[in-house]
Design goal:
A hairpin with a 3-residue loop joins strand 2 (21-23) and strand 3 (27-29). The strands form 2 sheets. A two-stranded antiparallel ribbon has the order 1-4. By secondary structure, it is of the alpha+beta class. The N and C termini lie far apart (37 Å). It is elongated and about 45 Å long. It has one helix at residues 36-51, and strands at 14-15, 21-23, 27-29, 32-33.
Length: 52
């Protein structure tokens, strides 16, 4: 996976399980890919539709 794979993604984030792991037994490091501007704008539209 590379960041350009997620350009225009409507998801808030996509977890990359191959890069997610446990650190020191009690902490999980989660790596997620996202398109900051497009994903955020899509969430705002979804919220606005709830009130229309």
């Amino acid at each position: 996976l590379v960041s350009s794979d997620f350009i225009g993604s409507t998801y808030s984030g996509v977890v990359d399980l191959s890069l997610t792991y446990v650190v020191e037994g009690d902490l999980v490091k989660v790596i997620a890919w996202y398109d900051n501007e497009y994903g955020y704008a899509h969430r705002i539209v979804e919220l606005a539709q709830l009130y229309v």
